[in-house]
Design brief:
Layout lengths: L5 E4 L5 H12 L3 E6 L3 H15 L6 E5 L5 H15 L4 E4 L16 H32 L4 E6 L12 H21 L4 E8 L11 H9 L11 H12 L10 E4 L9
Parallel strand pairs: 1-2, 1-4, 2-3, 4-5, 5-6, 6-7
Bound molecules: NADPH dihydro-nicotinamide-adenine-dinucleotide phosphate (NDP).
Length: 261
């Protein structure tokens, strides 16, 4: 079994996941990073992480795995076990927005099903499988192990042109509560990090719209969030720096959801 603590970050080669991977690597975590992209497509991001954070003992690996696919999830955990022999942190970050933003009066069932599979069912059952393994690991040696879900302010803020997305994030909020209620007894922390507007590929198409809103009074801190902002929050949780807080939700949104008159 490796001595370094091991984190599995889904969707870790770009966007928020890459920001999380960088911060975890900077704190000495070994990493298994996943995504839908092939090894060749992910190679540049992995090479850069290794160059920046590899210190000989630190291992950074990539596994092509679709979180929506049960057989991929199974193979992913088998790979983590074969390479690292342990799992300390699971970050359920991978997620998609609807390919077409459609009013909920018109949006398709196809989009709903796709989002539920990727954003909710995938992380829910990856958590189930990881949790069963983590429980066994805890019985062998007690460590700070945890599961961190990347939710969204969309769990509570309605966007009527992407209702399917909002519903998946509301579901992830409940998944965090459920798994916290079930896993705390084993010393496994379960948390949600809830980002607001973060500058990534996902928000590329709406950048102009939100640039103007950010200049106005949408946020208290008038800037886009960065993947690093989220990485800092995740690394704090992964490091065990938020004790006595099962199911905690860290909202990292520049004040987007602070109610004001
Ligand atoms: P990006 O679109 O920039 O990146 C998405 C990542 O998820 C990619 O690495 C992608 O892998 C991976 N991914 C997507 N689908 C799958 C799948 N089926 N299996 C495995 N990996 C998959 O998105 P963000 O970085 O912006 O978003 C990351 C998370 O943060 C999501 O859960 C999102 O909902 C959430 N979030 C984002 C906000 C934002 O403003 N950007 C705000 C609030 C929450 P690949 O590169 O291989 O395609």
């Amino acid at each position: 079994m490796s001595n370094a603590r091991v984190a599995l970050v889904t969707g870790g080669t770009r966007g928020i996941g890459l920001g999380i991977a960088k911060k975890l690597a900077s704190k000495g975590f070994s990493l298994m990073i996943t995504g839908r992209r092939s090894h060749d497509e992910a190679a540049a991001a992995i090479a850069q992480l290794r160059e920046e954070f590899g210190d000989g003992s630190l291992k950074i690996q990539y596994c092509q795995a679709d979180v929506a696919d049960a057989s991929h999830r199974e193979r992913l955990l088998e790979d983590v076990e074969a390479i690292f022999g342990r799992l300390d942190i699971l970050v359920n970050n991978a997620g998609i927005a609807p390919s077409i933003r459609a009013d909920i009066l018109d949006a398709s069932e196809e989009s709903f099903d796709e989002l539920i599979s990727t954003n909710l069912k995938g992380p829910y059952f990856l958590t189930q499988a990881a949790a069963n393994w983590m429980i066994r690991l805890q019985e062998q040696s007690k460590e700070h192990r945890c599961i961190i879900n990347i939710g969204s302010v969309s769990a509570t803020v309605a966007s009527v042109n992407r209702g399917d997305y909002c519903i998946t994030k509301a579901g992830i909020a409940m998944a965090t509560i459920l798994w916290a209620a079930r896993l705390t007894q084993y010393g496994i922390g379960v948390y949600e990090v809830r980002p607001g507007l973060i500058e990534t590929d996902m928000t590329k198409g709406v950048r102009g719209k939100y640039d103007s809103l950010i200049k106005g009074d949408l946020l208290l801190e008038k800037r886009w969030g960065t993947p690093e902002d989220i990485g800092i929050a995740v690394t704090m949780l992964a490091s065990g720096d938020l004790p006595y807080s099962p199911g905690a939700v860290l909202t990292i949104d520049g004040g987007l959801t602070v109610s004001r008159f």
